[in-house]
């Protein structure tokens, strides 16, 4: 089915809905690399005009990736909640945008609506929004999850402590972990990207992190971001695993490239639930995504990279995760060329994930060959905090020495919490107070090497 719109004296025709979606996207190096992007700003506006007039129901009938070819499409369609969709079912994409920005779109109504929205609907409406629109609506989307800490409560900002080490040295990782804890970081998760994907290495790190957690009675969860099959084998051998991690993408073929399918994720989800290690909740999955993953695997089906990213959120949503984050600038400038594209993508991913009902976080990051720097990341981290992001990721000195990319530093999280009055998860906030690491106003205080909290952590 062709779609078209007239601008002035020229009629712009698009071969199918995939072309409309791709051409309506803000400029993106990945879509240009794939030959999908609009070749002019005028054509981009024409695509957005077509998109604005499309009924939301179109995305239930005109599927971007055929149902019979792709299990992610089948998941999206088979799990669609028609009753939840009913309040917006008669709207066009443009009308839906206006409604989302209205007073009628409250946190409660958005929460009830989420199961009725498909990734394609959400991606479509995001393409009609300014950055401020994305921030405004995402700020109304509240998604609360829990394991040992409760995440996503209004007015709070959680953090992942990422103590990676290039050789998985437990002493080096422990030192970075203690450093982060002294900054009040780690209430979302203490999560390690291992240099070696093996069951023994994974188990060693899990045991070390669990010993630290138990020694200081820290109300958080740990995770070694290994492949799901490694996590399954570690659980079989009795490893103290809190969360199962996996990178996911928006098509069956892309997920096959990750060595996974929906059945494998379901098996891991069930195994982690059976451990019953959570104390305040049972959300046991942690998923990571990033624009460009499907394209880099040549598994994008000629669908634009942002829509493919949002389809990955349907995979995550099926397993009630504790955490989901996009590593927004990690894949490189081939997909997000510069700071403008990275900032826009971060706001898009957060908005789309939240609108679909996901506990969305962001790794505010860039690679050293991208046209971006730490000042640009300062902009994005503040915008996301205003938008109510569930958690952000921080690494020692903002420089991940194992993955070789730039993220946020521990002190960035401290600064954001103070500036925007966003305390950590309540259980973790109480722990910081008990440890003497915050003042009467709940602020993390500067600590000397001889101070009691430092001595307790180092001597423990």
From TrEMBL:
Task: Provide this UniProt record's keywords sorted from A to Z.
Answer: Bacterial microcompartment, Cobalamin, Cobalt, Lyase
Tell me the pathway: Amine and polyamine degradation; ethanolamine degradation
Instruction: Specify which residues bind substrate according to the UniProt entry for this protein.
Output: 160-162, 193, 288, 363
GO MF, one term, reads:
ethanolamine ammonia-lyase activity
* EC number from the UniProt entry: 4.3.1.7
One GO cellular component term of this record is: ethanolamine degradation polyhedral organelle
Free-text cofactor note: Binds between the large and small subunits.
As cofactor, the record names: adenosylcob(III)alamin
Q: Is Cell membrane there in the keyword field?
A: no
Gene3D superfamilies (alphabetical) = Aldolase class I (3.20.20.70), ethanolamine ammonia-lyase heavy chain domain like (2.30.170.30), lyase (1.10.220.70)
Where this protein primarily resides, as one coarse class?
A: other
Enzyme class, broadest EC rank: lyase
Subcellular location per UniProt equals: Bacterial microcompartment
Q: Which GO terms describe its biological process?
A: amino acid metabolic process; ethanolamine catabolic process
**Can you state which reaction this protein catalyses?**
ethanolamine = acetaldehyde + NH4(+)
Name of one Pfam family that matches: EutB
Q: Which InterPro entries match?
A: Aldolase_TIM (IPR013785), EutB (IPR010628), EutB_dom_2_sf (IPR044939), EutB_N_sf (IPR044941)
Q: What is the annotated quaternary arrangement, including any partners?
A: The basic unit is a heterodimer which dimerizes to form tetramers. The heterotetramers trimerize; 6 large subunits form a core ring with 6 small subunits projecting outwards.
Q: Which PANTHER family match?
A: ETHANOLAMINE AMMONIA-LYASE HEAVY CHAIN, ETHANOLAMINE AMMONIA-LYASE LARGE SUBUNIT
User: Which family does the similarity line name?
Assistant: Belongs to the EutB family.
Q: State its role.
A: Catalyzes the deamination of various vicinal amino-alcohols to oxo compounds. Allows this organism to utilize ethanolamine as the sole source of nitrogen and carbon in the presence of vitamin B12.
| Record's protein name | Ethanolamine ammonia-lyase large subunit
- Tell me the classification of the organism that encodes this protein: Bacteria, Pseudomonadati, Pseudomonadota, Alphaproteobacteria, Rhodospirillales
């Amino acid at each position: 089915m062709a779609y078209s719109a007239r601008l002035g004296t020229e009629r712009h025709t698009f071969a199918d809905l995939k072309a409309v979606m791709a051409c309506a996207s803000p400029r993106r190096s990945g879509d240009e690399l794939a030959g999908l992007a609009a070749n002019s700003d005028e054509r981009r506006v024409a695509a957005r005009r077509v998109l604005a007039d499309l009924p939301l129901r179109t995305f239930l009938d005109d599927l971007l990736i055929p149902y019979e070819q792709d299990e992610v499409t089948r998941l999206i369609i088979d799990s669609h909640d028609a009753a939840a969709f009913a309040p917006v079912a008669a709207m066009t994409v443009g009308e839906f945008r206006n409604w989302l920005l209205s007073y009628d779109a409250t946190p409660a109504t958005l929460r009830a609506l989420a199961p009725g929205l498909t990734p394609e609907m959400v991606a479509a409406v995001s393409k009609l929004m300014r950055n401020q629109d994305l921030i405004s609506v995402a700020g109304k989307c509240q998604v609360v999850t829990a394991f040992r800490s409760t995440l996503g409560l209004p007015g709070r900002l959680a953090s992942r402590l990422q103590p990676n080490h290039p050789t998985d040295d437990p002493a080096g990782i422990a030192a970075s972990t203690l450093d982060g804890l002294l900054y009040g970081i780690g209430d979302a998760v203490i999560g390690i990207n291992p240099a070696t994907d093996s069951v023994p290495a994974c188990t060693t790190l899990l045991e070390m992190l669990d010993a630290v957690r138990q020694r200081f009675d820290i109300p958080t969860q740990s995770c070694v971001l290994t492949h799901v099959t490694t996590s399954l084998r570690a659980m079989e051998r009795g490893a103290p695993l809190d969360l199962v991690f996996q990178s996911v993408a928006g098509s069956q073929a892309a997920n096959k490239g990750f060595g996974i399918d929906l059945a494998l994720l379901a098996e891991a989800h069930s195994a982690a639930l059976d451990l019953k290690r959570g104390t305040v909740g049972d959300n046991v999955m942690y998923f990571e995504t990033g624009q460009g993953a499907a394209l880099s695997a040549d598994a994008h089906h000629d669908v634009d990279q942002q829509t493919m990213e949002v389809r990955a959120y349907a995979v995550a949503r099926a397993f009630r995760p504790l955490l989901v984050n996009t590593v927004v600038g990690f894949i490189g400038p081939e997909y997000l060329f510069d700071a403008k594209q990275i900032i826009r993508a971060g706001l898009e991913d957060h908005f789309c994930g939240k609108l679909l009902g996901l506990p969305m976080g962001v790794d505010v990051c860039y690679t050293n060959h991208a046209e971006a720097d730490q000042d640009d990341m300062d902009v994005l981290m503040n915008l996301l905090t205003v938008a109510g992001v569930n958690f952000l990721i921080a690494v020692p000195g903002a420089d991940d020495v194992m993955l070789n990319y730039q993220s946020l530093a521990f002190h960035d999280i401290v600064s954001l919490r103070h500036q925007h009055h966003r305390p950590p998860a309540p259980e973790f906030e109480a722990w910081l107070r008990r440890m003497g690491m915050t003042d009467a106003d709940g602020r993390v205080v500067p600590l000397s090497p001889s101070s009691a909290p430092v001595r307790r952590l180092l001597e423990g």
